[in-house]
Amino acid sequence: MVIVSMKQQEIDLGLCLCRVCRQLNTSDRTHCQRCESALQVRDYASLQKSWALLITAAILLIPANLYPITMLTNQGQVRHDTIFSGIVHLVHSDMLPIAIIVFIASILVPWVKIIGLATYLCAISFNLPISKKKLMVGFHVIEWIGRWSMLDLFVISLTVALVNMGQLLDAKPAPAATAFALVILLTQLAAKVLDTRLLWDRLEPQDDTN
Amino acid sequence: MTQIESPKVVKKKLFSPIWLLPIVALALGAWLGIKSIKESGIEIQIHFPSATGIDVGKTLVKYQGLTVGKVKDIGIDEDLKGVNVKVMMDYRAKPFLNKETLFWLVTPKASITGVEGLDALFSGNYIAIQPGKGNTTAFFEAERQPPPMQVGSEGVMIELTSDKLGSLDVGSPIFFRQIPVGSVVSYRLDGNQRVIISAFIQEQYARLVKKNSHFWNVSGVKIDASLTGVKVSSESLASILAGGVSFSSDDNADIAKNGDVFSLYDSETTALGGIEINLTMADANGVDKGTRIVYRGINIGSILSKQLTANGVMAVAKFEPQYASLLTNDGVFWLEGADISLSGIKNPERLLTGSVINFLPGINTKTAMPSSFALQSKAPDLLQSKKRLLTLTSAENMGISAGAEVRFKQIPIGSVLAVKLTKDLSAVEYQLELQPEFASLIRSDSYFVPESALTVNASLDGVSVKARDFTTLTQGAVSLVQGHSDTPLAANNALTLFSSVEAATAFYASQQQVHLTLISQDGADVSQGSPIYYKKMQIGTVDSVNWQSKTEDFAIKLAIDKQFQPLLKKPHVFWRNSAVDISASLAGIDVAVAPLQGALKGSISLGLLDSKDKVSNAAHLKLYESKQLALTQAQAIRLTLPVSSKLTAKAAIRYQGHQVGEVSQVKLNDDLNTLTATAYLYGEYAEHFSRSDCEYHLVDAQISLAGIKAPETLLTGPYIGVLPGTSSQKTTHFVVSLAASSYANVAEDALKFTLEDTNLGSMKVGTPIFFRGIKVGQIDGYRLSTQGNSVLMQAHIEPQYSHLVNQSSQFWDASGIKVDVGLFSGAQIEAGSLETLLAGGINVATKDTTQEGNRLATGTVFRLQHKAENEWQEWAPAQ
User: For residue B399, what are the CA distances in angstroms to A45, B452, B478, B622?
Assistant: First the structure.
């Protein structure tokens, strides 16, 4: 039995999927009939872009965690807090639920995202024998949850905006906040830019277990 | 036919430009990493005695407010004596971490000298660093105290010497015109006497300190309390708490240098110069340090100090510089406090602020200044003109003391200087001084009387109260009463101080009085001061009443005002007034009251006699008992009466009803048988009734059936009747008979005859003689005949009926009722009038007409018949 790749099947059928609006177009069209975005059968450059972005995010994750993310002035005392020390402070301040939320949003999610995306890209780039279905599910999870990492940044910006009492009580964002924001942005972009059809293209019939 | 475009072949890029991003990120990260490694801090270790106030990870190291480090770790040192504090210093602080770098913990500190480290309250304690020199080291020992203020190369350090620290402290500010320009850095004791204070002046003000600047202490608050208000002044709040030093700056002098020594004065005034002078005084009451010296009310100086000297007190006074030129050689100083007198209070504020030394500059500027001035006790006498000195003498001190005012018409004209006893201790002498313009008031007969604050005059005219001002009460005052003479007082004569104006006028009046003496048998109820009246006006007084033992009578000395002397030239008499003169007679009661003063004190009256009367010896006049006696110049006679007569004093002596004299006194004689009465005969009658053959008899009321004779004597008492005599001898002693002799009251030309009878029967004196029932005469008296065999009755016939009786008349007794009862003649009752029934009576009938031939001679005796013949009643001759 000849197993034809997905790409081939698409070409044979003469269909092309618009990546933007998911409109099925005929392959002879250059632009989508609904959203007028350019049609491409496959975007091979997206892999590189995605890798690049992911690596940048990974690099930027280091200063995001090492540098303080908030600078709190409490009665004259200036206190720099990294993400982790902030969580620890919250825990010590008896605000466990908030600490858990911040932990999930600021540490867990970015790490999981980066690792997950790395795995996905590796699976595409290096043909790793991982269940595509699982990968796809993971990818969708990553993509959906990624936006929620911005929670921490929103907290910081609200804190900075509201806590504004001069020397008595003051909050200011510190360098890590930029890095962290970039991390989240870049991971989002990485997930966005990637053409997930490439995953399915790497499928070889002999490896297809599902 | 559509043109077929040749497809554009895009070569697939191997590396998309997206890989730029990771490279940038990488580069960034690398750069950050290198930077952080490069700028990592230096770790040093500071040893603190205690970790109080130091927090790990929080306590910062600051230099001049700049954070240069942070405490990383605290650990106890090995000896357990302190703590090792690991500090991560900023990498830029590396050059400062030398051996001489000082670290100390800054904690908030509040003290009197100031509040430090307030920033540490908010930010927490911090460690301060003072960089120093030396080798780089990493181990330091913390200072316990902040090091003293570093003196840079700017600013000036000077030293102030003082004998007391004067509430200064490290950090006390130094002011120039109340701007803080520096502060006290430290102080130390120099030997035992002085305190040396180091002060630092900031750089920008360092040029103000000159070589001749004066420094003075302005610590605390200066309170100037006077009655004009309270003034509180201080340099600044800091100087109140921390003390302060202020200084002056002279524009022209050189700037002081580091280390210059100045003297610290206690106050601005002592610092800023002026002239010092010495004042000597006997005692320093009222003079204190700070007592002001005042000229025209402006403070020109004050007393700095006072000290005891060998013979008094010497005070050092300082004149302010701008008034130093007022001081001259003959300036006068005197002490003045509040002047409280009852005429007002001057300068009452000095009661609170203390006495003030007044100063009057003199005019002598040429002579050198004396070293010391004497402090007078009272103001100098500005009017150099001479005052009139006067001496007064007085018998005793009237309550006047030195300082009393001398007044004329209640205006002060001088004052009493001194009061003392005369040299012979017999009188009191007053020294007075009068203002020169009033010296002309003194006359040779001026005198002074003391003023009493309250004079109450109660007299019979009323009560008057006179009050003078209070100065009189406290100090006394002496009033001048000018005399009337025009001659001014001779220089050395003394005038007299009398106790009152009345005493003075009495004194002078007494010098102008006529004196005479009266002789009186008794004290006459007068005493010294009894008035002497002339026509009820007072003309003089009795000076004295004295008993003269030699003559056993009283000498009454009178003083009569000179203006009445003409009265004494005329014939006059004195008599004493009785207070009340009541003369009661059947005609009415007469009450005469003497003037009241005379009534109370007794008085003597003067009366003038008719000019033809003789005046007895003027020097020793007699004092008569009463006006009548005086005016009539009565003469005294003595009467002897039988003891049974009831004569009393004041009985009258009457002749035919007129009063010719008065009995003044009746006295029982020793033999108890007779009374002696002294009586006065009025002057004009004295001659007639003092003849030796005058007859005095007692007239008493006789009430009988025949009638009442002299009934008024029932009320007034018996009186003495007198019959004048004819002899030329005068005597003053008479015997009074109880009854009048015959013919006592008989008219001169009445017909007198005698009736004879064997028996008196019911005849008595006064028995009427009737002629045809009309009374024509009466019996005057009766007596026994010399042989004793008949009764002779003197009778008289009134003159107008005297022609009715002649030698042919017959008299018969008509008394009673004649009842003739015969057996056969029947009863014959014969009665005369009722009067004859009661009182008896004699009838007379005349036979013949009276002619020359049968006229009765005086003394003819008729026989009184008992029964009338019938024919006698029918005689009716025409008369």
Answer: 141, 9, 10, 45
Instruction: List the single best residue of B18, B121, B123 to mutate versus A (max A Cβ within 10 A).
Output: B18
CA distances from B597 to B259, B353, B507, B579, B872 (A): 103, 62, 21, 9, 74
DSSP single-letter state for residue B727: -
Q: What is the mean pLDDT of residues B51-64?
A: 83
C-alpha B162/C-alpha B216 separation (Å) is: 10
- Nearest Cα neighbor of B439 from B482, B478, B401 is B482
- In this complex, is the C-beta atom of B122 within 8 Å of any C-beta atom belonging to chain A? yes
Count of Cβ atoms closer than 10 Å to residue B693 Cβ: 13
Give A-chain residues touching B10 at CB under 8 angstroms.
none
Q: How many other C-beta atoms are found inside a 10 Å radius of the C-beta of residue B18?
A: 20
Q: Of B13, B21, B22, which is closest to A45 when you measure between CB atoms?
A: B13
Of the candidates A44, A53, A75, the beta carbon closest to that of B21 is on A53
In the predicted model, is pLDDT for residue B745 greater than 70? Answer: no
Question: Rounded CA gap, B353 and B302, in Å?
Answer: 13
- Quick one: which of B688, B685, B693 has its CA closest to B662? B685
Chain B contact for A72 (CB, 8 A cutoff):
no
Cβ <8 Å between B21 and A186: yes
On chain A, the residues whose CB falls within 8 A of the CB of B28 are: 63
Q: What is the pLDDT of residues B706-736, one digit of tens each?
A: 567 777 777 777 788 888 777 777 777 777 7
Query: Which residues 29-58 of chain A have a CB within 8 Å of chain B?
Result: 44-45, 48-49, 52-53, 55-56
Across the interface, whether the CB atoms of A63 and B58 are under 8 A apart is answered no
Question: Is ipTM > 0.95 here?
Answer: no
* Minimum Cα–Cα distance from A169: chain B residue: B122
pLDDT digits (tens, 9 = 90+) for B160-190: 888 888 788 877 888 888 888 888 888 888 8
Name the residue among B264, B307, B12, B305 with its Cα closest to residue B163. B264
Of the listed ranges A20-24, B11-15, B298-302, B723-727, the one predicted with least confidence? B11-15
The shares of helix, strand and coil residues in chain A, as percent rounded to the nearest 5, are: 60, 10, 25
What are the average pLDDT values for consecutive 10-residue runs of chain A, which has 210 residues? 66 81 84 86 83 91 89 82 90 91 89 91 83 86 86 87 86 89 90 83 57
The whole-angstrom distance between B214's CA and the closest CA on chain A is 46
Q: Which residue has the higher pLDDT, B776 or B582?
A: B776
- Whole-model pTM above 0.95? no
pLDDT digits (tens, 9 = 90+) for A56-98: 999 999 889 988 988 888 887 788 889 899 899 889 999 899 8
CA distance B116 to chain A (A): 18
Q: How far is CA B445 from CA B332, B397, B485, B563, B837, in A?
A: 41, 21, 6, 20, 89
Per-domain residue ranges of chain B: 42-141, 155-271, 275-383, 385-497, 512-607, 635-737, 751-874
Sorted by sequence, the CB contacts under 8 Å of residue B600 that are 6+ apart come out as B579
Instruction: Tell me whether residues B29 and A62 touch, CB distance under 8 A.
Output: yes
CA nearest to B526, candidates B540, B509, B511: B540
**Adjacency order of strands within the sheet including B411-421:** B447-451, B477-481, B405-408, B411-421, B428-434, B388-394, B495-496
Which residue bears the tokens 């500027």?
Answer: B365
The closest CB to that of A77, out of B20, B21, B123, belongs to B123
Nearest CA-CA distance, residue B319 and chain A, Å? 59
Contact call for B123 and A76, based on CB within 8 A: yes
Secondary structure (DSSP) of B564-610 = GHHHHHS-EEEEEEPSEEEEEETTEEEEEE--HHHHHH-EEEEEEPP
Residue B606 burial (CB < 10 Å; 0-12/13-18/19+)?
Answer: buried
